[in-house]
Amino acid sequence: MRVDYSRRARDYDSARADEATDREFWLRGLVEIGRIRPGERVLDLGSGTGRFASLLQGTNPAVALDPSWDMLTLAHGKGPFPCILGDAHRLPFRRDSFDVTIIVMVLHHLANFEDALREVARIAHRVVIATVDLATRRLGILEEAFPSLLGIDRGRFPKVEAIAAATKAAGFPQVRLGTRVLHRTLTVDQQLERVRRRYLSTFDLLPPGEYERGVRFLEQEMPRRFADRFEIESGFTFVAGSK
Prior knowledge:
The protein is of the alpha/beta class and 243 residues long. The protein has a single domain, classed as Vaccinia Virus protein VP39 (Rossmann fold, 3-Layer(aba) Sandwich), CATH 3.40.50.150. It has ten helices and seven strands. It has a seven-stranded mixed sheet with strand order 3-2-1-4-5-7-6, sandwiched between helices. Helix 5 crosses helix 8 (160-170). The longest helix has 17 residues, at 210-226.
């Protein structure tokens, strides 16, 4: 079952986006590990609301591509960069159209990420992928609230080793990995609101009733356990490939 992002477009940025985090954590990781240089042509594959294409447009000609027109409508309002409706498995670009493709937390949504990476190798000289290693993933109190969540994600997210192998097989023989830890401090109310807005796509895939029960659990337990300070520490893996 896939998550329908079209009906989430309006609330997507309020639930997930934070410009400081996007710029200082995600974009910095992409640029440093992907070795993206100013002026290089960048495709933001699975761009959603264009968070990263928007941040890149000051230094790089960027293109946002996503399968949801509702998400691209929001992206279009963030700047003059092109926003293209498209499928990662059949990219609507000529060979060598881009210097680098960025893919941020997208592979687990694809029907066949290996085929998509082969398409990326056709149209770009390099790729940099941001993902999460489910072998080490921990969610703290969220695991208590939503006991099925991690198991579902382990079935969705490709293993880092498989991503690295597929990147090489797709046509990027030089592969590098980097791991970075994201630290955030929120109020309990802020974190609860993120959960209510379903900031994790897996919330849509939980068994019937589990999401609602989990929200009630968090509303009771989070203020008791954390007072008004909720700390998040999450590790993410960046996989870069080049020809």
